[in-house]
Amino acid sequence: MNFGKNKQDELDQSKNFPPHCYTTPSNVSHPLPYLLKTGLENKFILLHISFHLKSVIPKAESKSFFPERNIFSSRSDSTCKIPLGVTVEPTEVCTYEKSGQESSDDTDGSHDGFRDNYFDVDYCDSEPTDVSSSRQTLPVFRNAERTSNDNGTSATQPAEGNPPVDPLLRLTGAGSDELVNVLTIEASDSTFSDGSDLHEGKYFNTKKDLKRKLSDIAMKGNFEFRIRKSNRSLWVIECIDPNCSWRLRASKIVPESTKFVIRKYVGVHSCSLLNRNANHRQATYVVIGEQVAPQYVGVEKGPSPKGVQNFARTELGAQISYYKAWRGRKHAHTLIRGSPEQSFHVLPSYFHMLEKLNPRTVTRIEVDGESRFKYLFLAFGVAIRGFRYMRKVVGIDVTFLKGQYRGVLLVATAQDGNGQCYPLAWGIVDSENEDAWSWFLTQLKEIIGDTDELALISDRAPSIKKAISTVFEKAHHGACAWHVAQNIKNKFKCADIMGSYWSAVNAYRCEDFTGYMIEISNRYPRVAEYLENEVGFEKWSQCHYPGLRYNITTTNMVESLNSMLVNARDFPYVALLDVIQEKMSKWWNDRWIVAMAITTPLTPSRESELRPRFAQSNGRHTSQLNPITYHVKGGELEGMVDIFNKTCTCKEFDIDKLPCVHAVAAAHHTQVSVYSLVSPYYTKEYICLHTVRLYIQSDHNHNGIFPMKSSQG
């Protein structure tokens, strides 16, 4: 390389001097910047400068923050490395001001009239060590006083009261020879604290806890940090601004432990406010999810992605995108409710605990040939016992799940004597097909039996119809009248005929039913043909139904359960079953309390139906035809009542199993208690028997442990 003559002479002369005896040109006020400049041009000089620094720099009084680095372990001729913790401002290093005269030492004039940047700041990649005793640091000169050497050159001496301080230094030379300490923790306009409660020696149970804490501090402080070193036993971070003083070093207490302790920590920032960033790297979806997760505990829905965005902005000071909020919400769900994979893993243990703590509970899990999940079935023991004391009408329906693995939730529900839905069994299958329905109905048949008295109500899906006819040989299948009505409106576009249709559905006598069907046929012949031939009167009309379906014509009792689970349909399977379990527990407990408070012989809903009939029966004329048959006249319709068989020609008594106005008049005439004519399914005694006070609580973690409590009163 080309050097000026004087520089080359000095180079040659330097070989005969010890490293600390370098001489510098008379116009250079301080030797360090010049030697660094020269060192960038010759590796031989770099070596001597390294020795020179070590010979003149005393040991630090305080323990160094980071271990020693090789100060001139350069990657190239134009790049030198400085110790980690030393901050260099390239635009202020070795600055030469134009003086109007060329320097006699710079004959080529290369350093006149401009500023040179001599440091390409870079950091070592070697693993940190704790050899703080070998660290050599520069003295700090504040308000330095200039003196003259014997040879006329200027030198700088430290002023009184300026002892050496922390080794983190900024090297400057803009018209001055001062070395300014930038790690003075004293309050100033250019520094600020991160506001945390961290300190050296603070312990964390795991590295994850430490990282979560620092991410929280960074988000609330609107600053970013980057990881300098990370492995199983060490974590070193620093502010994203390389000129900032904020940094932290933590490591394991002992190699065998999982606990981390903060070894070194500087909590003061010296970076510019321009580096403050509300949309920074520490605001990851994982951190957001961990922070917002408590808001999903004990609730089904929790904050929406928009709500998560608002939470991050107001509570964490972070601006996040909708997509990141959505991922954070999903991560929070996983933390609270477990992942779908965990759900499949713990499902057998979950069912085992249910069976153990709730007698007669039936659970089934079906897997394929590769032991992968296929179907599940759940029926709580209290529901199975209670079904003996209610009408034998079961509604069956489905709801589609929205979780990662989708699936279909099958529900079988009865209706108690008070008109409330009574869930019997739950199933999860891959899709709504004949095989899945056949498997579910086979399990259901084991707990409710198969008799002529049993009625099954569902929509007209071909898979359900075929599965019911295959599994249940004695039970009667009926179509949901609401689903039939929806098919009529969608297929024939005749919503104005719905009044006549519903009158035909609820008609007790076949004569009345025929009149309504004539109305429908006169206006929409194709609809009448559809109802008679394609659907069949016996499927949707209660007066033509071959079995006993009481006044239950739809599957609304099942639809109410589906609406109850609308917010839980995207949960993992075990979390979904937890919601079901919690709801059932609350329902049975509340209904038991209501049943115990009943003061009338019948349930509240049936009492409200029977009382108006007492008033209507007062104006009726009753005559006895034989010991068990009575003729009741008056009103719009006459009736022949059979007190013994509990029937009436109006058919209302026959279908509902609740005394009609004619039966009430006959009972009053013969001095028979009207309550003796009521089906036992409507009595207080039966409703108390099937509303057993049983509540089940589960507080499961995601390792497959499910501590649960149950009590019965």
CA gyration radius, whole angstroms: 44 Å
SS summary, helix count: 22
Number of strands: 25
Secondary-structure content class: alpha+beta
Strand content: 15-25%
Q: Mean of residue pLDDT?
A: 74
Largest sheet: 7 strands, mixed
In short:
The chain has about 725 residues and is α+β, with helices and mostly antiparallel strands. It is built from 22 helices and 25 strands.
Verbal overview:
Helices cover 35% and strands 17% of the residues. Strands 13-14-17-16-15-18-19 form a seven-stranded mixed beta sheet, sandwiched between helices. A five-stranded antiparallel beta sheet has the order 7-11-10-9-8. Helix 5 packs across helix 7 and helix 6 (305-315) crosses helix 7 (322-337). The longest helix has 24 residues, at 573-596. The chain is elongated and about 110 Å long. It starts with a helix and ends with a strand.
